[in-house]
Amino acid sequence: MHKISTQAAPKAVGPYSQGISIGSLTFVSGQTPIDPATGALAEGGIQAQAEQACKNVQAVLEAAGSSMEQVIKTTCFLLDMADFQTFNAVYERYFVSRPARSCVAVKALPKESLCEIEAIATVEGAEA
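User: That's the sequence. What structure does it adopt?
Assistant: Structure tokens below.
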């Protein structure tokens, strides 16, 4: 196992890694819409928060030697399903390979986020 750590994504807010690579797979921990430069939640509602969460997933994937195009599964958490269409409009610009996905509404998310995204991706050139 190899722990993934990058300054281009927010630090973990608990006892976990930003991501883990093992063999040819990378598992990205749930990324909330925290701006890694400021440590603050992205402002501007669900659109801005979905954008930042996607950028954070992308940063962890790139640190692992993977990319958004290599994502095979995501799990998305929304505070409110009324945000589903707006969230999807942002999501589809980043996850162009259309990976398998689950999307659920939850009661609360860390730091009062409106969304969170976790991902599983392949890593090119990695041995299984």
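The longest strand covers residues 71-78.
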